[in-house]
Amino acid sequence: MYKNEGRRRRTTGVSAERELVSKLWKQGFAVIRGPASGSRIKKGVYPDIVAIKNRHVFVIEVKKRAKLDHIYIDREQIEKLKEFARRAGGEPLIAVKVAEKRVWKAVPISNVKEVSMDKCRIDKGIIEQAEDLMNYLNSRINLGLDSYLSK
Amino acid sequence: MYKNEGRRRRTTGVSAERELVSKLWKQGFAVIRGPASGSRIKKGVYPDIVAIKNRHVFVIEVKKRAKLDHIYIDREQIEKLKEFARRAGGEPLIAVKVAEKRVWKAVPISNVKEVSMDKCRIDKGIIEQAEDLMNYLNSRINLGLDSYLSK
């Protein structure tokens, strides 16, 4: 990890979020991206993206990586994502893009493992097998989020 | 209107939005504010605020004024608000704060009049008689947004 890693990752993060917002909008979702997204100020207050279609609410944390590998996320960040989703009556999830694979994948929150006091991890294998994001979202909408909520 | 009027209004706009976000969060809503809110870049892309509780989605344009008077809004802005709400299955509305009155009021989109090719207006009288914002939102949730959607 070189000196500007943090900054580089935030820049990449913002462009990934914009790409995903545009993709979701084209698919008919109402989509909003949090303010100062990718910056430290935002962290822990807003989710990266909220996408809504016909009252189905998806609360999304966006992760983009160059290569397929485990992804670590602050546990606090996951807790905030869950709390936002709880209030909204929506589903929290992680949208992952591995640049070399060129697809967006959906990782349900149940596949995010707590690995320490302050860190969570999405295993490489989970990401590899994760469903295509758009297929996932549409299947959740067709299924009805109610089944998620009562789980 | 003095030289920096536009800029001043944007600054006021952002602080009003932050105040409203905080108020809504305390009332149990999931709330997100659009990026670069108040700036020209954002205009026409995102609503100012999206507030969600238990799958009831409110798509909100925020207006703060020092004194009670007519409020003019770009018609394009209103159209975008409606489109976002249509996709979300939610309700578009204007949250108005008149500083001297110290309360937030809710103006339903049906009370926003088209007055020219590119401008809409909320009449002073409408603002004066508008319901308290929190009461309005809670009554809409209790009523069920379905009745709004089928109107």
TrEMBL record, chains A, B:
Coiled coil: none
GO BP annotations, alphabetical order: DNA recombination; DNA repair
Uppermost EC category: hydrolase
GO molecular function annotations of the record: crossover junction DNA endonuclease activity; DNA binding; magnesium ion binding
Cofactor note as given: Binds 1 Mg(2+) ion per subunit.
Active site: 37
Cofactor(s) listed in the protein's UniProt record: Mg(2+)
InterPro entries: Hjc (IPR002732), Hjc_arc (IPR014428), Restrct_endonuc-II-like (IPR011335), tRNA_endonuc-like_dom_sf (IPR011856)
Catalyzed reactions: Endonucleolytic cleavage at a junction such as a reciprocal single-stranded crossover between two homologous DNA duplexes (Holliday junction)
Keyword DNA damage: yes
Family listed: Belongs to the Holliday junction resolvase Hjc family.
Record function comment: A structure-specific endonuclease that resolves Holliday junction (HJ) intermediates during genetic recombination. Cleaves 4-way DNA junctions introducing paired nicks in opposing strands, leaving a 5'-terminal phosphate and a 3'-terminal hydroxyl group that are subsequently ligated to produce recombinant products.
Complex formation: Homodimer.
This protein's name: Crossover junction endodeoxyribonuclease Hjc
The species this protein was found in: Ignisphaera aggregans
Lineage, highest ranks first: Archaea, Thermoproteota, Thermoprotei, Desulfurococcales, Desulfurococcaceae
